[in-house]
Amino acid sequence: MNRNALGEESSLRAAPEAAVPVPFSGTVTIFFSDIRGFTDYTEEFGDEAASRIVHEQDIIIRSQIDAYGGVVVKTQGDSFMVAFSAARGAILCAIAIQRIVAQANRDQAGPRIAIGIGINTGEPIRQEDGDYIGGTVNLAARICAAAGAGQILVAESTRYVAGRIELRRSDGGVVEYRDLGLHELKGFPEAKRLFEVGWHQAGLGEQGSSAEARSADEEGQQAFKAAVQRANGVLARVLSVVHLDDPAFPALLECQAKATELRLAFTRAGADRRGVTAKDVLNQLVPFENLMILTVERDTLTDERWAELDGAVARVFGRQLVNAIARGRLSIATAFAAVEKPASVAAPAPAPPPVEVPQPKEPDPAPVQPARSSVAAALAPPPLDERGAAVSWWAAAYAAWSQWKPSGLAWAHALREEIRRYPFLLSVPLRASGDLDDGRLAGGYFLLLEHVENQSPGFIRTILDRAIDEAGMETRALSAKLYPLLIEGGRLQETYPAFVRDVIQVAVPTPGMWADAGLVEREDATVVMSRPTGVVGESHEQSTPLTEAGERAAERRFVVTTQPLTTRFFYVTSGKLNTARDVELRLREDGKPSDRAWYLTVRDSLSVRSDPKLVPLSGVPLPGLGRHHFGVWVAVFNPDPEDVITYELAVSVKRPGLGQSSPAASMFSRPGGPAR
Prior knowledge:
Elements: E1 28-35, H1 38-45, H2 47-67, E2 71-76, E3 79-84, H3 87-107, E4 115-122, E5 125-126, E6 132-133, H4 135-146, E7 152-155, H5 156-162, E8 176-183, E9 192-198, H6 210-214, H7 218-239, E10 241-243, H8 250-272, H9 278-296, H10 303-317, H11 319-326, E11 330-332, H12 334-339, H13 343-346, H14 371-379, H15 392-404, H16 411-421, H17 440-443, H18 446-455, H19 459-471, H20 475-489, H21 492-507, E12 517-521, E13 526-530, E14 542-546, H22 549-553, E15 554-562, E16 566-574, E17 581-589, E18 592-593, E19 597-605, E20 608-609, E21 613-614, E22 620-625, E23 631-638, E24 645-654, E25 662-670
Parallel strand pairs: 4-7, 12-16, 15-25
Antiparallel strand pairs: 1-3, 1-4, 2-3, 5-6, 7-9, 8-9, 10-11, 12-13, 13-14, 15-24, 16-23, 17-18, 17-22, 17-24, 19-20, 19-21, 19-23
Helix pairs in contact: 1-2, 2-3, 7-8, 7-9, 8-16, 9-10, 10-11, 15-18, 19-20
């Protein structure tokens, strides 16, 4: 084993007890609310009535903020700005507020309150007075401005950080998100994807008017079932679409994640007999039907029809996906196409006449099954073979993979969920993963098995047989054989960098919970953040403030030891900066330049970031920290399946125009793997 940095002395240990406060707040959810039509209301009913409305709103909002763990940052007139440590708390608070307001309006004659709410999640800058500033706050305010009366709008970052939120059945069973597509918001150069949070007017634990909808007549129920069946067929086809060049094409994965959520929503609506109509189902299905028409019939569409569908699909799913369709890079998976073939086409063909090269006769068609079942049967691998159950890392990963394949859950959605549970997943060696969290962490490596399967179709289904043929059934020997077969047959060593790129491109929500170390650059100090224990998954951070000019200008060198097929994460972010900074990254291995690290920049929010790029051998300058971009994340990876590799990541942050960094360099040792 190569040298491990764990035993090296670190200057981080010399940090003073009282560190300079860091304005960089960590992940915070910002909530804005505003009374709709307040100015018109004041003009019509007078100041006294307006004052009463504001007072009523104040009581309602403050009571729910306290109940859901929010902190009022400030108020202005009829508007509230609130900070939540949890995105879920912010969403539940918003739902509770809208329900109370709706109930009050039902019970009250005359003028009524109407509130719009906007929510965004990010890493704003916290000021000394407790206020927050930055792009995260600005976006939340713009989202609130876009919300209509009684509406709750959330940013894409909030939607994915909050994830699935369970409610009591009487409250609707689960929080539902409706994708509103991309919206142009004032002050933001790029369109933002917004989601509307669905809520029911029934009070907590109360039976609402939706009961009438749930008791629809038999004709309506039949129409609903037919609509759901149609929807499941279309959405299953969407989930079968593949990108011919990039199995982790982000735009497609995002689209499929939405298709997955919609299928689950339809299933819940049918099971709970909630008031969802056939019209509701078909209306939500339209964007996906448009997508499939554009994908399957693109060569036969008229120019007018193409232009119509092009605009409609781009508004919902983004321009990148439409461009991929136009270039012919999207295709229906072969397995799906086989099972979805119409019965008329599947009829056996007559035996061909004798020719020089005999053609095999088509077998009799299997009985036609419902689309959902046939797709699952075609795509599902065999269940876990008990012969490999004793190899803990393999058993957990394969079992998770074989359960996920027929589930209909999109890869992007499943990936985000696993990373949410285990943000340090990629930092744990595959063979060691079965020893952590009773093997559940190893289950997360089904993402790696899917990557291998995409590289070598059918390989994962046959690898155990090959390993047993070569090594027998003894557990240690079988484990030792499975691993190299996965590496060699699955081309894992050469494609591991692509796997890391795909993961960070789709799933990285924030670097804080991933990172071994990071820099927060402020006007008055540079703060070095680290994980002092070196244990993978460690949540405690240690901060070291640097205030002396020469020390701040020094190149910071982080010694990072990576276990086989693992990745370690670092970041640089801007705090309160009056002057932009230039960031430079360099990576070395054994004193020689290396390109085994991905970097990506975050421009103005968690949902707006660049595509990952490899750090060039010569290093990469990234000007404009605090102006053109908010920060940069770095993923240092080790593609070697056997050897531990120690890298040196050099990071410099300086004011523009000051020339080269100080020749003096500060060394920060970083531990290299999980404590065993």
